[in-house]
Amino acid sequence: MSEGTDLLVEMKQRAGRCIDEAKEKLHSLSQDIWRCPELAYEEVQSHHRLVEFFSREEGWRVDSHFKLQTAFRACWTAQRKREGSPVVSVGFLCEYDALPDIGHGCGHNLIAEVGAAAALSLKTALEDTQEELPVGVQVTVLGTPAEEAGGGKIDLLREGAFEGLDIVFMAHPSREDAVCLPSVAEQDVTIKYHGKAAHASSYPWKGVNALDAAVLCYNNMSVLRQQMKPDWRVHGVIKHGGVKPNIIPDYTELEYYLRTPTRAELPVLKAKAERCFRSAAMATGCEVEVEFARNTLDNKLRNSVLEELYEQNGITLGMDFTTDEDVLRNASGSTDFGNVTFAVPGIHPYFYIGSDTLVHTKEYTAAAGDYKAQFFTLRTAKALAMTALDVLMCPELLQRVKREFTEAKLKEDAQLKTHHPVEQC
Q1: CA distances (Å), origin 349, targets 80, 346, 377, 395
Q2: How many helices (H) and strands (E) does the chain have?
Q3: Distance separating alpha carbons of residues 419 and 414, to the nearest angstrom
Q4: Per-residue model confidence as pLDDT tens digits over 206-230
Q5: CB 373, CB 357: distance < 8 Å
């Protein structure tokens, strides 16, 4: 092997040893977050625990309440070999919000642990070889709240929190190891119908039935599915349908998620759905409020250079990546990390945690808190750190990553111009 290759191997080994040596405090961090599940934008204790964790680590500059109340930033900068040399900024993302009722059924405590472990190990691998680095390096950890509801990363993007980052990494628990699983663009919407109450038996003709509007809305959306593309998705619930059978409901409320494979298609589905919402109001004489969520989730912009590097490192560590086409082709849901990938090149691999139970269940909550998940979680952190080292030690790789990012973004932007929000029958 060449001298450069020998150094890279040594640095990867050093990163792995760092994680092994820190495994108890990393597990403690994960457990503290798991035991105190907090909903989106309310992650006070988890935020405090992560800020405390990095504040105790030598060399990290920590900004609590960074841009958002429950977000944070921790940074470490390697000494540059020479003044004026370029600085590559590597980001690791931590999520830590939980689900209502079931807690960490999406394993965000493990996402936080992976981000923290990968960042610590990358710093350790770099700090003893700073004179031999081809570029200056800054390692940044961003604590990103509200992935499950609201889209905290989109808020942070809007506030400029990702500016200056060259690449970003995070990993998500799953039922298998996968370099990438498809995610889809998503628009959430709340529909509120306002009618007029009346006694349902004595003088129903004086009422305006908001429940009729909600039922028509639901049926309109169900009928719309016949004309939808096979990979579009709509799913909704009636959150409020009235109070008593003998009172004509004067208020009803529905919530829908609209999803398409790409962000370019989402305005088309959104326009079709809105006609379903408003026509139900027209048919029943109700007033309607259509409230689209402030943040729209984008699909992920994939980066094959980073994905291939991660897969190679994962295989070295013993990962068995799924080859099941049903899994690899089936959309895994939506995430605000998709929006990040349109601003900064990055990867969002999935990792097995020792359980075959379904995500977003009480059983997966238990699995995310099980000590058995630690081996797989820390192995994933090692693979992320190793992938970051590959890019940092070979500037040509970083240029390939950025070139693919630019080309993929241009292709997506071209698709936006070819889709029109309103398609007439």
Answers
A1: 31, 10, 12, 23
A2: 13, 12
A3: 9
A4: 999 999 999 999 999 999 999 999 9
A5: no
